[in-house]
Amino acid sequence: xxxxxxxxxxxxxxxALVALxxxxxxxxxxxxxxxxxxxxxxxxxxxxQERHALLRNYPVIGHMRWLFEGIRPEIRQYLIESxxxxxxxxxxxxxxxxxxxxxxxxxxxxGTQQRVxxxxxxxxxxxxVGCHPETWDFRVKIGGPDCKQPYDASIYNISAMSFGALxxxxxxxxxxxxxxxxxxxxxxxxxISCYHKANGGDLVYQVGTGYFGCxxxxxxxxxxxxxxxAALPQVKMIELKLSQGAKPxxxxxxxxxxxxxxxxxxxxxxxxxxxxxxxxxxxxxxPTGMMEFLGELRELSGGKPVGFKFCVGHRRELMxxxxxxxxxxxxxxxxxxxxxxxxxxxxxxxxxxxxxxPMVEGLTWVHNTLRGAGLRDRVRIGAxxxxxxxxxxxxxxxxxxxxxxxxxxxxFAIGCIQAQACHTNxxxxxxxxxxxxxxxxxxxxxxxxxxxxxxxxxxxxxxxxVGAAGLEDPQELGPMHFNVRQKDGAVVTGDVAYPQxxxxxxxxxxxxxxxxxxxxxxxxxxxxxxxx
Length: 532
What we know:
Helix content is 40%, strand content 12%. The protein is α/β, with parallel strands linked by helices. An 8-stranded parallel β-sheet has the order 4-13-12-11-10-7-6-5. A 3-stranded antiparallel β-sheet has the order 1-14-15. A two-stranded antiparallel ribbon has the order 2-3. The longest helix has 25 residues, at 444-468. It has 2 domains: 4-80, no CATH class; 139-519, TIM Barrel. It has helices at 7-22, 30-48, 53-57, 63-69, 73-80, 88-102, 168-181, 194-197, 223-230, 261-267, 287-300, 315-328, 349-354, 359-372, 390-398, 408-413, 436-439, 444-468, 494-497, 505-508, 514-522; strands at 122-124, 139-142, 151-154, 156-158, 184-186, 202-207, 235-241, 252-254, 275-277, 306-310, 334-338, 380-384, 403-406, 482-485, 491-493.
């Protein structure tokens, strides 16, 4: 456990002691002694205050952040809240999250800070007869005809982040915030820990390739353990994880050195052994087998909504799954589309930058494939991948999503400053570390309030955007409500940039889009293998 972050705090008190001793001989040393004692007392205050995790971990020296932050608004936005090399999206999103989580003014002077004539710029078209929706707490019912316990979900929820990747205090704060705000918290593939259960927030239990929390000694799926876990009243939905956007198909490993007794208990793994998440599932190997497994999960859970999460890769493979749905009659209640731009605590750089389909294209493919197969009305779609602002949510719903998940936004809300030290166990704000002293900096009660406040203020902003478009609910948004500037400078509406397939065209065989029609013809329900 490193204590280097307290070096300045210790040096201040050491300097004060030296100055006091020297003042016996030179009275003028009382002035620097007083100054150093004042700094030392400030450091003690930093250690015991509960609002700023950074100051609790970096007493005295942590104030340098706020010193620079107060110099000019430009420095606060571009130098402190993010690195100059960081993309503008992150600067804007991070600023918005901090303001909404803290409940401070989020207005900015001098108009748009976006480059409106750049390729890819998009905007929501508004109405001269805008309206004022009565609620901001927008909900979507998840659960098809085979679901016995449908879930009335918020349209904005906490995306998958495992205990082990995040600290105990971070998990507890997120779940308590979800409880306070009435929205869902995805467990990630690391199982359900005592910190997920402590505050009673709604959970989406994610079952990954390691089957953590529902595995036998050999790492295979254990039906009885799953049944026991899925029966928890907090568990509202079951999510089978196929892949994540940041490193699809890669799998992962939690080194033995980072496995605590609490992590071992939540995951059902032994201490002293590397915890492996394989790149693929052992419970099934074909599209038909996957649907049968989903049907089994639904039955074992007592009829709770069951679905899967994945980042779109070979587009034909989704069509294999959809054909298996049609052949078996087992249709998932939801699909979560994770974009390649999604984050993770650690991933090979090439995977993060070059593997996986971005969220917009992946969402469009899933939405259209379900439409073409005549299943869109039975399957809800969630989306994830840097969805932080109200505009992100509104645009994503317009392109076909029923709800959105966010990891990054809620991490910012509990104090993440993107130090990019997640994999080192040395997170400066206690969010992504198992170091007990470091995570002490994250005060659960204070950060839970920020989580709930961020969720509420973001959805209030969605309400205002929807109202500006003359609508009452985000579900009324469609691609035609957005304009997109293309590479040649031409402006097209969203339904031209992202056209939708006619309902049932794939099963009827009259799909005019060869990109969909040709792949549909090659897809098989009994195999993921390519067929030419």
